[in-house]
Every structure is written in C-alpha cells, then in structure tokens.
User: Which sequence fits this backbone?
C-alpha cells in the first residue's frame, strides 16, 4: 500500500560532515522506494544536538505538520538516534505521531513500537552520557599533558605542536599586561574597556566590555582571574548542562576537583602583578556597594523594577539599566565606553 512519507534527517555539529544529511536521505529514499512509499516532505536539522528536541526547528515543524492533518502517514529516519537522544523525547514523539495517525519508522529497525521507542531511547541517551564522560576524560588527560582543552584565551594563538597547543601572541600579551597593571593601579575594568575601545584595540569579542576584563569571582572567569596568564592550565572550573527544553548550555561551578598543570611557557604576567590584582579584588569585595536590602550589588541578581529591561538609550540603542542605587543610565557607556550619553535619571522619577 502506498503511503505518504516525511523524512527526518539530522547531524549534530560542525565536527560532523554535512554529507551525513545526503547519506541519510539516500538511505531513507531507498527504504521508501522499496516499501512502495512516496516521500512528500523532508525535514532537516543541521548542526543541532539530538539531546534537545525543543531547540530543533525542523523537528518541531514536523511535529506541527503531523498534528495539522494527513499530510503524511509515516515519519521515516535513518535511525532512532537521528530523531532523539533522550528517551522522553523519542517516546513523546512516537505518542504524538500515533495520536495523529502517523507511524514512526527507522531504516535500521522498521516500525518503532512503544517498546522499541523506550528501549532505543534509553540506548541513545546512555550513548550520549558515555560520550560525554569520555570527552571529559580526554580533556582532563590533555590538561595533565600540558595542553589546553578549552578555547583560545586572549593573548595566545593555537599551535599545531605535539606538546602545548598554545603560543603567546606578543601584541595581545602587551595588552594583557597593560590590563593587569592598570587594574592593580586602581583603574576600574569599565574604564579600561572604554580606553581600549577608544584606541581601537581589538578585543576578544565584539569590542571590550568591563565584564570581559573583570569576569566572575565564583566561576573564576575573565582576563584578570584567568590563571593561564601566570602559566597554569586549569580544567574543570565550571560544568555545563543542557536545558532539554531550550537546548541552551547553562554553566555552574564545578564541585569536583580541578585539574591544574604548570605551563611556564605560557606565562605573561608576573606573580607579583597577579597578587596585586587579586589583593585589589579582595579589597573591593569587602567594601562593595549594597542595594536597599543590604545585598552586595555584584553578588546577587539585582531587583527587578517596573521598567527593568524596557528602557533604551536614545543615542546608541543600548539598554538603560540601574547603574547604582536607584539611578538608570546607559549600560553601553558604562560597560564599553562607546556611547557619549552621560544622562542618568532616578528610578523614582521614571516610575512616578
């Protein structure tokens, strides 16, 4: 009996070959032809993990089309792990399709029954966990061998070497030392960022901002807290979890011991300068400004007010946010120094 078929194909990330999509399509089309079915729709998600159904636009479009009516009677994928790598997502998809009179098939299995969906979903989910554990093990081993298992920090370039995979970038290293020295001498991170932007110094991302320099004390991020500048490679400061609904990676402070390896060839900052910077952080922490309830402003999420997130700077279009106690100002000017709008206004005046 001829049936209309929707084919779903997916590959995970930029490390996988885009040709995987074409290969999956070839196998699905051949299977449909063998069964005497007609392919009427193709849904393709590229460079998206199978662990997050909610973050895959084509996957969601396929579900919506199935719910809208009899556009197709079968959803076909090369294998269950192309559809999902979480048991809940695979069984949910099968249930939604079954409710709308649509069968779920895989080239490698045939009809995916409720039992198949549960078992194969668990297999795919366990595979993802095992892969994550092996990746973590490999990154820890690389760190112990003196290789950086993270992105390229400002001040360095990637190196194709058997040993350390980073080399110092002399021009950027000068900027790193300058940042440390200015902060140690009492200059605020936002002011340093504004100066660098004014001078046209390329930053790690799209321009310099204060948080790139200052970072986060708990997570030990930011240029001024990165121990690679004193010749130490650190792995395991934070852990990442993926929200199964949105697909966003959320970071938190790791509880397991960090892996720390000495790498003298990567040192840019002297121990004495590093200590001066950390001492200033400690001093600032003791005298940090507090909000109306007595909470340290940079240690907690600031209170949400009536106009929070709704105000824009008329000069640059950046956000107008609380700059201090109950005063709104241009956050672009504060963080980057690239806006000339100095005007601030009290929260009470705006809300009255």
Assistant:
């Amino acid at each position: 009996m001829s049936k209309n078929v929707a084919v779903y194909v997916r590959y995970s990330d930029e490390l996988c070959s885009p040709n995987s999509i074409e290969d999956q399509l070839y196998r699905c089309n051949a299977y449909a032809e063998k069964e005497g079915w007609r392919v009427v729709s193709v849904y393709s998600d590229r460079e998206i993990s199978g662990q997050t159904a909610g973050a895959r636009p084509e996957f969601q479009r396929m579900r919506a089309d199935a719910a809208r009516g009899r556009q197709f009677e079968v959803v076909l994928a090369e294998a269950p792990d192309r559809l999902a790598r979480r048991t809940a997502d695979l069984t949910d998809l099968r249930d939604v399709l079954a409710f709308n009179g649509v069968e779920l098939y895989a080239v490698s299995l045939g009809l995916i029954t409720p039992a198949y969906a549960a078992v194969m979903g668990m297999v795919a989910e366990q595979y993802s966990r095992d892969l994550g554990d092996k990746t973590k093990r490999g990154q820890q081993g690389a760190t112990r061998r003196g290789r950086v298992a993270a992105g390229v920090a400002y001040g360095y370039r990637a190196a194709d070497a058997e040993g350390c995979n980073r080399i110092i970038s002399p021009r950027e290293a000068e900027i790193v030392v300058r940042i440390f020295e200015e902060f140690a001498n009492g200059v605020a991170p936002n002011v340093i960022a504004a100066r660098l932007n004014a001078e046209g110094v390329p930053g790690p991302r799209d321009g310099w901002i204060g948080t790139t320099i200052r970072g986060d004390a708990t997570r030990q991020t930011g240029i001024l807290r990165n121990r690679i500048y004193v010749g130490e490679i650190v792995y395991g400061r934070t852990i990442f979890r993926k929200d199964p609904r949105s697909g966003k990676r959320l970071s938190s402070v790791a509880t397991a011991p960090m892996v720390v390896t000495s790498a003298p060839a990567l040192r840019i900052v002297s121990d004495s300068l590093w200590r001066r910077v950390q001492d200033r952080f400690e001093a600032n922490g003791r005298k940090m400004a507090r909000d109306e309830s007595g909470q340290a402003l940079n240690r907690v999420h600031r209170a949400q007010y009536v106009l929070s997130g709704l105000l824009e700077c008329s000069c640059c279009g950046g956000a107008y946010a609380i700059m201090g106690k109950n005063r709104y100002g241009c956050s672009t000017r504060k963080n980057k120094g690239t806006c000339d709008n100095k005007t601030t206004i009290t929260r009470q005046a705006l809300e009255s």
Remarks:
- The mean pLDDT is 85.
- The radius of gyration is 26 Å.
- The chain has three domains: 4-129, 145-286, 294-352.
